[in-house]
What we know:
disordered N terminus, alpha+beta, 4-stranded mixed β-sheet, elongated, Ribosomal Protein S5, domain 2, single chain, 4 strands
Amino acid sequence: MQPLPMNLSVIPAGQxxxxxxxxxxxxxxxxxxxxxxxxxxxxxxxxxxxELKKNVPVPPEGPxxxxxxxxxxxxxxxxxxxxxxxxxxxxxxAGLLSDLPVDVVLHPRRTYLTLSWAELESEVAQAxxxxxxxxxxxxxxxxxxxxxxxxKNKPAPKKPNNAVKTGS
Length: 168
């Protein structure tokens, strides 16, 4: 699968990556989990520059991609191999997201160690095409975690007790 034509030398590799914990948390806060065959991913559109506060650092205008490869995926050398392969696939497929101001977080499965290169690259391309398709749809202005019934951590609201207590 061929990416859209784009001169990747224009975008430094460091600008294609999510690095700060706060950036990852911002994506998790407003995004839904999407699934591809061998990975899951989150994405969120970034706030337009005009809406940023004065003291907030300005993010780059193109797409940014973050990888999360936890210890459950294997020993350090396995996790590093997964990240190296995934970073290269992201770099090659970055043209699919070239003009979108989105942040994407990829969660690969352990099977990424044994996937052929063609399968891995097509998996990333499929995820990016899904992001491109869904990024054109309007997102809800309220973050998911603040919507009613979505958060699992909040206890259910208490119902008022209508029983009348009698004094003793």
